[in-house]
């Protein structure tokens, strides 16, 4: 059976968990990372030398990097649904996965960490505000893209929605001012209706 290592409040672990729920593939999850430790144990480092979560094990094959785990699971279990068979649709999904990691998360992460995982007295309010503004700006690109489609790569959910969906949940749940980005909001509401998203992603921030 597939084994996923990682704590459930990690954005990167949530990508894999939501994906597994969408695919309805049996798996077991093992706590690792954060307060659970494990990631510095030699046995874990042998699977993932970065000492980070998530790590996926599939019949002796160990895989790390959350977007790659999502791609692997979708290619193996979701061809024609989460993993588009059409080359251009698949590239579109891939594009938004990479964009989430390279462009959204570096801006959103300081807002999330600053407001959720940093004691109030230690917060750098100016840095949080600057990152909030920049995140608003980049999410404007996604908002415009979603004006003409239900999901990032077309009419149905694909792997392209998964990393962004996990990140945007944080954005929506943070106690901050957000300008109205109507298409983004409608897409987020659509994700919120999915059982796997409710189970592992749309939860209180911690
Ligand atoms: N690029 C990696 C980043 C993984 C990563 O930074 N994971 C964080 C959690 S989101 C982590 O392991 N932090 C240390 C810990 O939880 O102990 C991926 O996408 O999988």
Which labels suit this protein?
206 residues; alpha+beta; Glutaredoxin; Glutathione S-transferase Yfyf (Class Pi), Chain A, domain 2; 2 domains; four-stranded mixed beta sheet; 54% helix; globular; binds glutathione
What is the rounded Rg? 17 Å
The small molecules bound here are:
glutathione
Under CATH, the topology of the largest domain can be stated as Glutathione S-transferase Yfyf (Class Pi), Chain A, domain 2
What's the overall geometry? globular
Helix content: 40-55%
Structure notes:
By secondary structure, the chain is an alpha+beta fold. The protein has 2 domains: 2-77, 3-Layer(aba) Sandwich (Glutaredoxin); 87-196, Glutathione S-transferase Yfyf (Class Pi), Chain A, domain 2 (Up-down Bundle), CATH 1.20.1050.10. It has 8 helices and 4 strands, in the order βαβαββαααααα. Strands 2-1-3-4 form a 4-stranded mixed β-sheet, with helices on one face. α1 (11-23) links the parallel β1 (2-5) and β2 (27-30). α1 (11-23) crosses α6 (161-173) and α5 packs across α7. The longest helix is centred in the middle third of the chain and has 30 residues, at 87-116. The radius of gyration is 17 Å and the shape is globular. The mean pLDDT is 98. Bound molecules: glutathione.
């Amino acid at each position: 059976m597939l084994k996923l290592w990682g704590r459930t409040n990690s954005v990167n672990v949530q990508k894999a968990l939501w994906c597994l729920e969408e695919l309805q593939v049996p798996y077991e999850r093992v706590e690792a990372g954060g307060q659970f430790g494990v990631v510095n144990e030699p046995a874990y480092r042998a699977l993932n030398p970065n000492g980070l979560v998530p790590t996926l094990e599939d019949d002796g094959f160990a895989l790390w990097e959350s977007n790659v785990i999502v791609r692997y699971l979708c290619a193996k279990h979701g061809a024609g649904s989460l993993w588009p068979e059409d080359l251009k649709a698949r590239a579109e999904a891939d594009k938004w996965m990479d964009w989430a990691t390279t462009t959204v998360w570096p801006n959103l992460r300081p807002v999330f960490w600053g407001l959720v995982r940093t004691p109030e007295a230690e917060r750098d309010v100016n840095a949080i505000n600057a990152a909030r503004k920049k995140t608003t700006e980049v999410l404007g690109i996604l908002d415009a893209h979603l004006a003409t489609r239900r999901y990032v790569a077309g009419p149905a959910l694909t792997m392209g929605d998964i990393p962004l969906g996990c990140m945007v949940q944080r954005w929506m749940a943070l106690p901050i001012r957000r300008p109205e980005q109507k298409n983004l909001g409608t897409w987020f509401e659509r994700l919120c209706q999915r059982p796997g998203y409710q189970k592992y992603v749309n939860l209180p921030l911690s």
